[in-house]
Amino acid sequence: MTRKITANAYMTLDGRGEFPKYPGSDRRSEEINALFREMWAKRYDDVTTVVMGRRSFLGHRRVWTEKARKPTDQEFLFEYSRYLDRVDKVCLSRTLKSPGWENSRIMKGDLGQILSKLKREKGGNIMVEGGPRVINEVARRNLADDYWFFIMPVVYGKGPRYWGNIPKGTQTTLKLVETVPGEDQEILLHYERIP
Ligand SMILES: NC(=O)c1ccc[n+]([C@@H]2O[C@H](COP(=O)([O-])OP(=O)(O)OC[C@H]3O[C@@H](n4cnc5c(N)ncnc54)[C@H](OP(=O)(O)O)[C@@H]3O)[C@@H](O)[C@H]2O)c1
Questions:
Q1: Which ligand 1 atom sits nearest the alpha carbon of residue 11?
Q2: Residue 28 has pLDDT above 80, yes or no
Q3: What is the CA radius of gyration of the chain?
Q4: Count of Cβ atoms closer than 10 Å to residue 31 Cβ
Q5: Read out DSSP for 87-117?
Q6: Whose CA is nearest to atom 34 of ligand 1?
Q7: What is the set of domains in the chain, with CATH numbers?
Q8: CA distance 117 to 62
């Protein structure tokens, strides 16, 4: 079975990788909502490798391990943390010497070659989880089989940019396969690579 590569990105309307507040965004829910399930929970059975740029990897290591959970956190957050602890994680870095997180390894080099190498390894699907710089390269070079974009209804004006430095003349055209509306005016856009 070929390992599918999915790129996953959350962003504001102006393409910033932040979670700003907007009406409904800070409502606490014990139950997982449809968008969290689609973006982060649906993968537990089939995604066995998660790829992150060094900055995102270190951010996730700080806040998403099970050890980092607070006792008051909802069970679905614990479940996601347990998943991230156990999944094979690839940290892209030319500077980090040791990942310092179980089931993690560091890879460096050309991103297209790294993803091709991962694709040839045994395992389930592969999720490229960010950050914006890595997603930018994946989208610019069309390296993923499909893409999920979680768009929040805010023009934010700050935070890391996904689309800041796309060279002139670059074009990636994707096929929209699904849109999933959220409860609070967010939207998920699911695209596939055009073969
Ligand atoms: N899903 C997410 O995690 C997510 C989503 C949205 C926003 N954010 C936020 O975005 C920020 C980080 O995103 P970012 O775009 O600035 O950085 P990033 O993509 O997480 O990491 C960039 C780093 O990845 C390494 N890298 C990338 N490609 C590589 C390659 N082919 N070979 C070797 N190393 C490679 C380099 O690390 P070295 O410098 O070590 O070589 C590079 O500096 C954080 O503030 C985070 O909170 C994260």
A1: 6
A2: yes
A3: 16
A4: 9
A5: SEEEEE-SS-S---STTEEEE-S-HHHHHHH
A6: 93
A7: 5-193 (3.40.430.10)
A8: 28
> pLDDT-based confidence at 45, cuts 50/70/90?
very high
How far, in Å, CA of 66 to CA of 60, rounded? 11
Ligand 1 site residues (CB inside 6 A) read 10, 17, 52-56, 59, 92-96, 108-109, 111, 129-134, 160
Tokens representing residue 94 in the block:
């030319």
Tell me the CA distances in angstroms from 165 to 98, 123, 140, 170, 174, one per residue in order: 30, 33, 10, 10, 19
pLDDT digits (tens, 9 = 90+) for 120-146: 999 999 999 999 999 999 999 999 999
Convert the pLDDT of each residue in 47-60 to its tens digit: 999 999 999 999 99
Q: Render pLDDT for 81-128 as a digit per residue (tens, 0 to 9).
A: 999 999 999 999 999 999 999 999 999 999 999 999 999 999 999 999
CA 131 to ligand 1 center in whole angstroms: 5
CB 39 within 8 A of CB 8: yes
One-letter amino acid at 134 equals V
Residues 6 or more apart in contact with residue 71 via CB below 8 angstroms: none
Question: What pTM was computed for the model?
Answer: 0.97
